[in-house]
Every structure is written in structure tokens, then in C-alpha cells.
Amino acid sequence: MARIAEIESLVADQDRGAFLSDIARPHALALHFLVLGETANRLSEPFRATLPQIEWRKIVNLRHLRFGIWR
User: What is the rounded CA–CA span in Å between residue 16 and residue 22?
Assistant: First the structure.
């Protein structure tokens, strides 16, 4: 949950232009997404099956997100 709070703080009160004009923020956000995706990928299938309402594949795929396409 700490990662989620950090992600929220990176984008809070930021419009798209301000966010993208800051070199550090998109990179920091990408790193958080990478960590979340890698962590989700390492969870066991039996554990993931206990939470079927979570779209695990989408979370895992966050590690492939590229911010350059937003510019």
C-alpha cells in the first residue's frame, strides 16, 4: 500500500502538461509501476486465485508501460 500512496503523491495536483514537463516524475512513476508489476508477477497462482476480482495480468503488464508514448 505504501507504493500506491507514493504513486498518488507523484500525480496529485498535476495536470498532464506539468507532469510531462517534469523529467523526474514520469520516470519515478514508471519505476513504481515496474516494481508493482514485478511483485505481482512473483505472486503464486494459488494466492492470486484467492483474489479473482483483481486483474493480475493488467498489474503485471504495468512493468512494460512506456511514458514516451504519452508525449
Answer: 10
pLDDT tens by residue, the chain, 71 residues: 677 888 888 888 888 888 888 888 888 888 888 889 999 999 999 999 999 999 999 999 988 876 555 44
Residue with cell 508501460: 65
**Burial of 71 per CB tally in 10 Å (0-12, 13-18, 19+):** exposed
Judge contact between 11 and 29, C-beta under 8 A: yes
Burial call 18-55: b when 16+ CB within 10 Å, e when fewer: ebeeeeebbeebbebbeebbeebeeeeeeeeeeeeeee
The pTM of this model reads 0.74
